[in-house]
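Q: Convert this sequence to structure tokens.
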Amino acid sequence: MIGSGSIVDARGKIRDWHDWYAEVNKKWGLERGDDIHKTGPHNKSLEEHNRELHRENKSLEDAEKYPEQRRW
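A:
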């Protein structure tokens, strides 16, 4: 926990820091992400993540092998 106090206070402090960092990072074109309390968590298993990466890599390899089939 950050400093003394409750976990609710710590959450607020961390949220404040992220808001501050978001303001600072605007000059580099970076935006603050959505609050997870509003969007909900988007966790996925390592296996699911690896499957998605494999599919994406296969798609990129196929596009490189067969450029006439690109649908851009």
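The chain has a mean pLDDT of 85.
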